[in-house]
Structures are given as structure tokens and as C-alpha cells.
């Protein structure tokens, strides 16, 4: 189990393409990990109900020789500021139901990745602690008395515990880097404007 949970996204992609493991096995393992950890750390704001169905589609496609992209069948998670088609953000319920994915989500899906869950974050998507009045507070997985930091604390907690092989967050003033440091994992903040924020709630354009 740990071999799947703590493998890198690229290692999982290679294993799925070689058919040494199925996408369904990988997705199921991560869903079970989220289910086990959520009552303890509260890192997820929304669990996607179709993830296993998508994993089955990925396996069927691969059996026909079709590869969706470099991350075919690999699960991922995303901070709850990013729009996902047909799912309201827990922090932004006054807006219309999204009919399009945020650009970063669309690109991950285009690469063949499967969205598992949306992760908890502070109000308006920014802040030094991952807590809000709707979905509550995320705890540091290494010490429940401590914060995972913010603003992408939910993502850092999920990646650090093997619940997500790769996550998408945002960073204006350390929003990726601080939680990664607090949770003992790694984050990459690209040059401003390099990755579009289209479809991200309360984030500067770019």
C-alpha cells in the first residue's frame, strides 16, 4: 500500500502505462487513505464521486492502446479556489455553478490525470492558517496541535501523508512554500504568470 501512496506522480504514471498496477488500484488506495485521514486532519473540502469511474475508463483506454497523456490514470488534488466543472467551491457558494474547469485543472485532465478531491484553504483562498467557518480547520498531520500553514495547507497535508501524489495550490506570499515547510514536503512556485490563474477564485490574473 505504501508503495502506491508515497510513489511520485511520474513513477505512478510509468507503472500504470506498463500495466504493473492499474489506475483503479492507485485511485482506490488514495481514496482509502483520504477516508482514513480526513477525520483526523480535515484536509479535504470535497471528495469527487466519479474518481473511480474515471480510473476504470483510464484502464479500459489503456487496454485498447490509448494513452490520454503523460499522467494517464494518475490521481491529483487541487486547492478549493480552483473551479471544477459541476462542483461549487466550499468558499464561494454565491457564484454560479462552474461550467468550465480552471486552466490548471483542465491541463491536468488533458494530461490524463484524475481529480480525487478539492483541498481545504483559508477564507478567500489566502491566509497564514488553513481554517474557515464552512469546512473548519486543517491540522498538521505530524502534530495535531499545530497548523499546516497557509494558504495551501490542505494540499500540503494531503501530499505529506500520501493521500495525494501531486497537488495544485497557489502562492502569493508563501502560500505553497510555507505549508510545504510545515508539513515536510516539497512545493514549486513558478514564476508569476507562468501558470495561468484563470478560473481561480480571488487570485490575480496571470
Q: TL;DR?
A:
This protein is of the alpha/beta class and 206 residues long. It has 7 helices and 6 strands. Strand 2 (75-79), helix 5 and strand 3 form a beta-alpha-beta unit.
Write structural notes for this entry:
The longest helix has 19 residues. This protein is of the alpha/beta class. The radius of gyration is 16 Å and the shape is globular. The mean pLDDT is 94. The strands form two sheets. The chain has a four-stranded mixed β-sheet with strand order 1-3-2-6, with helices on both faces. It has a two-stranded antiparallel ribbon with strand order 4-5. The protein has seven helices and six strands.
Helix content: 25-40%
Q: Looking across the biggest beta sheet, what order are the strands in?
A: 1-3-2-6
Q: Kindly report the average pLDDT value.
A: 94
- Rough shape? globular
| Distance between the ends | 39 Å
* Total of helices: 7
Q: Helix and strand succession?
A: HHHEHEHEEEHEH
- Strand fraction equals 5-15%
Oligomer: single chain
Question: In total, how many beta strands?
Answer: 6
Low-confidence residue ranges: none
Major β-sheet profile? 4 strands, mixed
Radius of gyration: 16 Å
Q: Which structural class best describes the helix and strand composition?
A: alpha/beta
Amino acid at each position: 500500500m505504501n508503495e502506491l501512496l508515497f510513489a511520485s506522480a511520474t513513477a505512478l504514471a510509468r507503472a500504470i502505462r506498463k500495466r504493473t498496477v492499474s489506475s483503479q488500484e492507485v485511485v482506490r488506495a488514495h481514496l482509502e487513505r483520504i477516508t482514513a485521514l480526513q477525520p483526523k486532519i480535515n484536509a479535504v473540502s470535497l471528495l469527487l464521486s466519479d474518481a473511480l469511474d474515471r480510473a476504470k475508463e483510464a484502464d479500459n483506454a489503456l487496454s485498447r492502446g490509448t494513452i490520454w497523456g503523460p499522467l494517464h490514470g494518475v490521481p491529483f488534488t487541487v486547492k478549493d479556489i480552483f473551479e471544477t466543472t459541476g462542483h461549487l467551491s466550499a468558499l464561494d457558494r454565491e457564484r454560479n455553478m462552474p461550467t468550465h474547469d480552471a486552466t490548471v485543472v483542465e491541463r491536468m485532465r488533458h494530461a490524463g490525470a484524475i481529480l480525487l478531491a478539492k483541498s481545504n484553504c483559508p477564507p478567500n483562498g489566502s491566509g497564514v492558517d488553513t481554517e474557515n467557518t464552512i469546512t473548519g480547520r486543517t491540522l498538521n498531520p505530524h502534530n495535531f496541535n499545530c497548523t499546516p500553514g497557509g494558504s495551501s495547507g490542505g494540499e500540503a497535508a494531503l501530499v505529506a501523508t500520501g493521500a495525494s501524489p501531486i497537488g495544485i495550490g497557489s502562492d502569493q506570499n508563501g502560500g505553497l512554500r510555507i505549508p510545504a515547510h510545515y508539513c515536510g514536503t516539497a512545493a514549486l512556485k513558478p514564476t508569476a504568470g507562468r501558470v495561468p490563474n484563470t478560473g481561480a477564485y480571488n487570485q490575480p490574473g496571470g
